[in-house]
Amino acid sequence: MVNNILNIVKNNILDNGLIRSGDKVVVAVSGGPDSMCLIDSLYRLKDELGFDVIVAHVNHGIRKESDNEKEYVSDYCLKRKIPFNYLKVDIPKLSKENKVSEETCGRMVRYDFFEKIRKENKADVIAVAHNLNDNIETILLNQIRGCGLKGLIGMDFKFNKIIRPLLTIEKKDILLYNNELELHPCFDKTNEEDIYLRNKVRLQLIPYLQELNPNFVTNISRMRNILKEDNDFIEDFTNNIFKKVIIKMDNSKIVFDFSNFMNEHKSIQKRIVRKLIEKKISNLDGIENIHVLDIIKLLNNNIKGKKYIIGNKFTIEIVKKNIAVIY
Hints:
Helix content is 54%, strand content 15%. By secondary structure, it is α/β, with parallel strands linked by helices. Helix 2 links the parallel strand 1 and strand 2. The mean pLDDT is 95.
């Protein structure tokens, strides 16, 4: 199993351009089975593929086992002379102060820390340990919440500076990898509690679906790959139009000619609006389909001076016929 996983990780890296020769990679390591498989496989491949690794570990201050996990990860790194970076945060306190869930707060803190370490070390990418099972969970969660084509695709190998070398590997194979190499990873007991929706999907929904069809995971993975091909085609088509839309773009605003896309299919209109928003605020957090439809209505009316405002996120204003600005 070890050689099999190393070959899969290597092919995922090369086939998807995740890491180039000479790159420096920040590896997010919690000490759990997935992240230990990730760091260990990357460590074993780094000389062959010509890259360096740095480890980043976050203690959320939630579980008493966290200090032991820190020692476990730092010891692994020390024995292999891998640079180790550590952050301890009181997530329960921070989440209350910011009025967000502990899960959301923890994720924000983790990724901010990973990016900080990346910049400080002039690293190229951040590797996280999402696997095939994680992606299936994400796809099912997106369906439960309501989603479009992108939601049915789930996670991709690369998003901005984040890479996922384990994305095609099943959890059971990751556990075998750990066992064969006697890595003895840490286990987070909260992953086995029905306290989050994702845990309920993992512990209840997926096992039930596998009872209905033992090939469920394979079939969902196949569906995801087919849909990704379709989405890639639509994205390429959208990007070609998007280039014609932009008049001026800088950090403060984007001026665009919406006559270049308002005659396109509604699917393309919505994708371009989302792309404009993402270019301006760097994400689509909190942006729902109703917002996009309202913006398209504004552009269709084409009345100079009319605006669409979403809180303190952004404003879209029509400055003259067919020309608008997002700031």
